[in-house]
């Protein structure tokens, strides 16, 4: 008998500290109980499948043939596609556009009604970046307070989450505005000095996205002396979290392990992202990255590369594969690895008290995985949005 719209799921539950066989009970989009005894309501028996917290992706441009930068209709489809990869919440990530056009486009996206994976804010990768990377000349802009105000307003009712370079001239004047009301600010695409990075941290930057990538090594000024820059300043500061693209190309697993060791004192300081581009999740081929040209993938899950010059342009990684790679390459158990794709990114967004854990009172966002860690079902706010046939 179903009681008060309660449903219980029987399986192997990945809690915040252990793996337990038991029942996860939900009602009204929330988790209301986790226990070893069967509750007095309908039970869905998942057998020996794992029940893990839903995945949260802080950095994703596209999936399949859809691209956030193509507009509202593509965003709607992305929200419908992502549950098959276990993603229950994400930051749609935008490449920079010309001033004025960027705020107008963001305003359109922010008002889009979606179903499926929850939009948790909009990630603006630019325009306040020092190094272009694959983002094109539009990524480069000097500090512009009016532009920041316009983008923050355009993102409402969501938050505009800026990725900036600490070495952009005048950026220090804008960081308190970007970080207002507890909004996270990310850093990336930078050759900042230790001092520039430390100043940005003091002014509110608390996260580094696709860490190590487009963080060039400082030049050697004294033979035999290893130089330090943004990477070292970030690793040394317990307040700063990092994410990286664990696809085997963007970041060497040794570097990923170094981050895990460096950040042990700060809870929730290491996350995984996909930085997925259009074409991710599909068989290898060539796809259009909007105004930034065509990209291609050598194999399924490969990094995206520009057709023009073969430079990296995002990835073909999906979050379920990122979880598998963490278990395989980082010597983590499933409890530890699942935190990198769920509770840690929730904490980065200030949502760690309601998302990212299987815990009473939290949102009923969870994923059912088989013994190979393949996604069987995905539930978002207590509603099933994907079931593998």
In short:
This protein is 22% helix and 27% strand.
How does this model look, in words?
The protein has helices at residues 72-81, 101-110, 145-155, 175-178, 194-202, 230-236, 253-262, 319-329, 334-340, 343-348; strands at 7-14, 19-27, 30-35, 42-53, 55-60, 62-63, 66-67, 87-94, 118-119, 122-125, 160-164, 186-187, 207-208, 241-245, 270-273, 286-288, 294-296, 303-306, 312-315, 366-369, 375-380, 383-387. Helix 8 crosses helix 9. The strands form four sheets. Strands 5, 8, 9, 10, 11, 12, 13, 14 and 15 form a nine-stranded parallel sheet that branches. The protein has a seven-stranded mixed sheet with strand order 3-2-1-4-20-21-22. Strand 2 and strand 3 form a beta hairpin. The protein is 22% helix and 27% strand. It contains ten helices and 22 strands. The protein folds into two domains: 7-52 and 359-387, Roll (Urease, subunit C, domain 1); 55-348, TIM Barrel, CATH 3.20.20.140. By secondary structure, it is α/β, with parallel strands linked by helices.
What structural keywords apply?
metal-binding, single chain, metal ion binding, alpha/beta, seven-stranded mixed beta sheet, nine-stranded parallel beta sheet, 389 residues, 2 domains, Urease, subunit C, domain 1, TIM Barrel, Amidohydro-rel, globular, N-acetylglucosamine-6-phosphate deacetylase
């Amino acid at each position: 008998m179903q009681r008060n719209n309660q449903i219980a799921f029987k399986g192997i539950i990945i809690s915040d500290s252990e793996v337990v066989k038991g029942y996860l009970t939900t009602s009204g989009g929330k988790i209301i109980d986790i226990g070893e005894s069967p509750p007095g309501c309908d039970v869905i028996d998942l057998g020996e499948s794992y029940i893990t917290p839903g995945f949260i992706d802080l950095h994703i441009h596209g999936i399949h043939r859809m691209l956030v930068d193509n507009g509202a209709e593509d965003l709607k489809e992305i929200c419908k596609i992502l549950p098959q990869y276990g993603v229950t919440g994400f930051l749609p990530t935008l490449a920079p556009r010309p001033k004025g056009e960027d705020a107008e486009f963001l305003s359109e996206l922010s008002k889009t009604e979606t179903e499926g994976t929850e939009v948790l804010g909009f990630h603006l990768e630019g325009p306040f970046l020092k190094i272009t990377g694959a983002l094109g000349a539009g990524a480069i802009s000097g500090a512009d307070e009016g532009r920041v105000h316009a983008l923050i307003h355009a993102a409402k009712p969501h938050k505009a989450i800026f990725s900036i370079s600490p070495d952009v001239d005048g950026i220090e004047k804008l960081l308190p505005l970007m970080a207002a009301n507890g909004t996270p600010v990310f850093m990336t695409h930078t050759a900042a000095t230790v001092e520039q990075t430390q100043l940005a941290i003091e002014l509110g930057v608390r996260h580094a996205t696709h860490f190590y990538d487009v963080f060039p090594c400082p030049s050697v000024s004294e033979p035999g002396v290893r130089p330090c820059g943004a990477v070292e300043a970030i690793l040394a500061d317990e307040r700063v979290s990092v994410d990286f693209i664990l696809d085997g190309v963007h970041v060497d697993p040794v570097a990923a392990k170094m981050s895990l060791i460096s950040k042990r004192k700060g809870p929730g300081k290491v996350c995984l992202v996909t930085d997925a581009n259009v074409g991710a999740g599909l068989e290898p081929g060539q796809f259009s990255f909007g105004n930034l040209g065509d990209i291609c993938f050598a194999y399924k899950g490969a990094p995206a590369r520009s057709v023009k010059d073969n430079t990296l342009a995002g990835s073909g990684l999906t979050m379920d594969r990122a979880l598998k790679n963490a278990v395989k390459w980082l010597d983590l158990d499933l409890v530890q690895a699942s935190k990198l794709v769920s509770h840690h990114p929730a904490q980065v967004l200030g949502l760690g008290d309601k998302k990212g854990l299987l815990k009473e009172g939290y949102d009923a966002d969870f994923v059912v995985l088989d013994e190979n860690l393949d996604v069987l079902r995905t539930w978002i706010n207590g509603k099933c949005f994907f079931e593998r046939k």
